[in-house]
């Protein structure tokens, strides 16, 4: 199992030292390097890595601000000279937090944890089937209950660990995160347009250019949803626009 990674650090010697340590792990393929957040975001979207080794203190945006820019973040191992960010690092679900200079034993522990998580994800994906648009699912909201066909759902909206399901004139909550839904939904019918929304492609009636290189979608019922600038490139490619 090959794990594709990018090293993000403003210090060239730190990047070189980490690359040297990672030579002991042939399962980790270093795709690229970046020295600041702007460059890192571009390279993450270009390569779509499984993992980033991320410094926190960098010129411009710091590591946490970088992560907030991403629609869907890869796994993160922080590498930093400062220990005061450890609690915040785990609040954003970082896989590990390594202090510089990186100790080879601590790196080994992080890679072991990483490998275990990837193996678990592979097994979970093998056990999960993609939901087709013709399948139904059960929704309960207070005293109301529905069997909802996926083709009738025009939109999913993030609400923390829940998601709002938009169908007919209803928008009840289900106990599924948007990330979990994205894994199960057929990408030929549903598209993650931004951090908060997944849209049913068959419900789109109009596509217009929007601010900062983004797009604005109008659904058949008149609702308008913005496609983020970064997702717009994917959307255009998929729709051959």
From TrEMBL:
Keyword Repeat belongs to the record: no
Short name of one Pfam family: LytTR
The entry's keywords: Phosphoprotein
All residue ranges annotated as the HTH LytTR-type domain in the record: 137-241
Domain Response regulatory: 4-115
Coiled coil location: none
GO molecular function, one term: DNA binding
Residues where 4-aspartylphosphate is found: 55
Protein name as catalogued: Two component transcriptional regulator, LytTR family
């Amino acid at each position: 199992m090959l794990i594709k990674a990018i090293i993000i650090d403003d210090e060239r010697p730190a990047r070189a030292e980490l690359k040297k340590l990672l030579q002991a792990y042939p399962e980790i393929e270093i795709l690229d390097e970046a020295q600041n957040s702007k460059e890192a975001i571009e390279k993450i979207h270009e390569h779509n890595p499984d993992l980033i080794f991320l410094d926190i203190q960098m010129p411009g945006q710091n590591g946490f601000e970088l992560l907030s820019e991403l629609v869907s973040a890869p796994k993160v191992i922080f590498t930093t000279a400062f220990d005061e960010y450890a609690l915040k690092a785990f609040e954003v679900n970082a896989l590990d937090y390594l202090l510089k200079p990186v100790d080879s034993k601590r790196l080994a522990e992080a890679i072991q944890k990483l490998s275990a998580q990837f193996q678990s994800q592979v097994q979970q994906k093998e056990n999960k089937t993609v939901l087709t648009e013709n399948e139904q699912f059960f929704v309960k909201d207070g005293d109301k209950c529905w069997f909802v066909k996926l083709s009738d759902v025009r939109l999913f909206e993030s609400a923390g660990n829940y998601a709002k399901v938009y169908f007919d004139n209803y928008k009840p909550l289900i106990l599924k995160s948007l990330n979990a839904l994205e894994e199960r939904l057929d990408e030929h019918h549903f598209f993650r347009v931004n951090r908060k929304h997944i849209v049913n492609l068959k419900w789109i009636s109009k596509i217009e250019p929007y601010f900062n290189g983004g797009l604005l979608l109008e659904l058949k019922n008149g609702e308008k949803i913005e496609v983020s600038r970064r997702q717009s490139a994917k959307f255009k490619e998929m729709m051959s626009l």
